[in-house]
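A.,

Following up on our hallway conversation. Structure tokens first:
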């Protein structure tokens, strides 16, 4: 059983910087793909002639909660248009995906698994009473196809079988029929077992395999938690074993893994696909909810505060397919791409650089993160992620005012409607904690409320910037959940064109980021000073970062990777200082679109 349960977008609303972030998202690609991107606007899911597989479900998976979190009437109507079309096109026997009836056994059922999950999201937001029966029929139809041998799991469905468990759990809670448990066991039997693939994760190969595909990897971390929820099997915490192994051989300073497009080792110039970030976040959300272990919530916020904003433009009209920890330029690579299996434009900011999956799938990142802020179980409510928002549930109204992670102060305004216990998760790195002005020990804080009680609770703590060890004898600067980088100033060059009959035009054209400032540095002192600035209308602004760190550096001769003109060497070719020591200002990783994040300390 889950330790914690999620609230819905009708019970949680964003405030402060988080509301600004979601509003920017709604004004950018997320809120406009159905107006300008053929694979959503003219999708086969709604009767058109464009892509009829993962892109509309991916987009809806983020667009729906975004619409309801912002309580945007127009967005809700547009989401319902898609759901209405999908439900209306469901066949009498339950099949729901857009393909020729005679080719169902050739249709990769990953799209079925994904749209089933999306329908649960739609129900949570809208309480559309059509959904339970639609899901029942769709799942029963596919279970019968699998059990009678008409089809079997293959390709993406085989790699992502566990994603179906979101809809199976939803359906079993309403129709507790034994075939759903049999369905879950059948999926596990036919699905990929990632425990058998671990040896393939040690040394990156420039080959494409499902077993090492970074998005599959991000998704699969939650497989055991989802499976145990449905079949009530013993939980063995395999996610931690798998994560540690992945981190050892493919880890990054921001808590994700390299994968461009498959696992790529520990080099800071390998890429990480954006889809993998949002899927790893979603896995961590479920792992925290299931286990109640704070490490998953802390790892979740590290990804959200660093990797997610780093790879999306300030206005959220463009994104990268691949981000790099040490990223000195974003322009078409002049030689054979150093990425494992991705192309020479994968790190550009654009509409769909390299491939369009991330265009649709990055949309879930911020909305679902907001929905993870508060969770509940029985008579308890926990603030799992300290982002500004308001919870208005049956038991209480809780307003959280904070600029965390840019500052380390929380103010809770609480009105109890019933008796309940309120828990505040305090990050493991917090020092000198004070609660209502009084010193507090480390660990979670619990308050007991009685019906009608109103209280204001203040929490503050300090976080000191520090150096973190990285491979190849390099260092990164970290303060709490924020990673800091040397920002590289750049010239922005737009490129408008048409490809495959799809326009790339302002503001969703391709952008080249050409460096115009120095980046060949080494840290020369362990002295670090943190400065808190005002949070602007763009929370992760690349021009006005909300927090900075001062560090001491010297210039060095770093060099380029195999004579590329826009990719730095994996490690400096020389650490001999070429200048006197001077002070520079580090930006949060998510604010620095061009950056050096791993440097030597000389």
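Then the amino acids I'd put at each of the 602 positions:
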């Amino acid at each position: 059983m889950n330790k914690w349960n999620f609230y819905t977008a009708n019970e949680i609303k964003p405030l402060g910087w988080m509301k600004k972030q979601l509003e920017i998202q709604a004004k950018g690609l997320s809120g406009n793909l159905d107006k300008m991107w053929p694979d959503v606007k003219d999708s086969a899911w709604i009767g058109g002639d464009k892509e009829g597989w993962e892109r509309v479900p991916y987009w809806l998976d983020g667009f729906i909660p975004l619409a309801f979190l912002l309580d945007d009437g127009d967005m809700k109507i547009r989401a319902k248009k898609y759901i209405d079309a999908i439900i209306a096109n469901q066949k009498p026997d339950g099949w729901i995906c857009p393909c020729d009836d005679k080719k169902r056994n050739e249709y990769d059922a990953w799209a079925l698994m994904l749209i089933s999950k999306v329908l649960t999201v739609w129900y949570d937001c809208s309480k559309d009473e059509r959904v339970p029966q639609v899901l029942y029929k769709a799942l029963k139809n596919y279970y019968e196809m699998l059990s009678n041998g008409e089809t079997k799991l293959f390709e993406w469905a085989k790699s992502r079988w566990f994603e179906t468990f979101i809809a199976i759990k939803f359906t079993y809670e309403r129709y507790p029929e034994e075939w759903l448990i049999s369905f879950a066991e059948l999926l596990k039997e036919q699905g990929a077992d990632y425990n058998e693939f671990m040896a393939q994760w040690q040394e990156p190969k420039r080959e494409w395999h499902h077993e090492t595909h970074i998005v599959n990897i991000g998704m699969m971390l939650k497989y055991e938690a989802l499976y145990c929820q449905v079949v009530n099997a013993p939980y063995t915490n395999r996610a931690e074993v798998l994560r540690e192994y992945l981190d050892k051989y493919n880890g990054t300073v921001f808590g994700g893994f390299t994968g461009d497009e498959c696992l790529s080792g520990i080099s800071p110039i390998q890429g990480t696909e954006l889809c993998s970030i949002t899927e790893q976040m979603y896995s961590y959300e479920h792992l925290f909810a299931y286990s109640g272990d704070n490490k998953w919530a802390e790892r979740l916020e590290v990804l959200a505060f660093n990797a997610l904003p780093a790879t999306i433009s300030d206005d959220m009209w463009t994104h990268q397919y691949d981000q790099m920890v040490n990223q000195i330029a974003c322009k078409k690579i002049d030689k054979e791409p150093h990425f494992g299996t991705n192309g020479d434009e994968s790190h550009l900011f654009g509409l769909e650089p390299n491939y369009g999956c991330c265009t649709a799938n990055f949309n879930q990142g911020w909305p679902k993160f907001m929905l993870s802020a508060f969770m509940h179980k029985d008579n308890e409510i926990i603030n799992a992620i300290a982002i500004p928002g308001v919870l208005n549930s049956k038991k209480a109204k809780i307003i959280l005012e904070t600029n965390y992670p840019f500052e380390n102060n929380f103010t809770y305004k609480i009105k109890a409607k019933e008796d309940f216990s309120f828990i505040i998760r305090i990050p493991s790195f917090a020092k000198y904690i004070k609660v209502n002005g009084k010193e507090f020990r480390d660990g979670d804080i619990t308050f007991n409320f009685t019906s009608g009680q109103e209280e204001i609770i203040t929490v503050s703590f300090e976080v000191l910037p520090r150096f973190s060890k990285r491979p190849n004898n390099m260092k990164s600067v970290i303060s709490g959940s924020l990673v800091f980088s040397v920002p590289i100033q750049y010239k922005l060059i737009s490129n408008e064109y048409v490809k495959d009959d799809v326009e790339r035009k302002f503001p969703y054209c391709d952008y080249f980021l050409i460096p115009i400032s120095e980046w060949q540095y080494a840290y020369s002192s362990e002295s670090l000073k943190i400065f808190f600035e005002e949070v602007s209308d763009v929370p992760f602004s690349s021009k006005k970062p909300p927090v900075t760190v001062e560090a001491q550096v010297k210039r060095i001769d770093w060099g380029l990777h195999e004579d590329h003109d826009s990719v730095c060497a994996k490690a400096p070719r020389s650490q001999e200082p070429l200048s006197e020591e001077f002070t520079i200002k580090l930006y949060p990783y998510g604010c620095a679109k061009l950056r050096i994040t791993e440097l030597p300390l000389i």
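Residues 274-291 form the longest helix (18 residues). Curious whether your intuition agrees with the design.

B.
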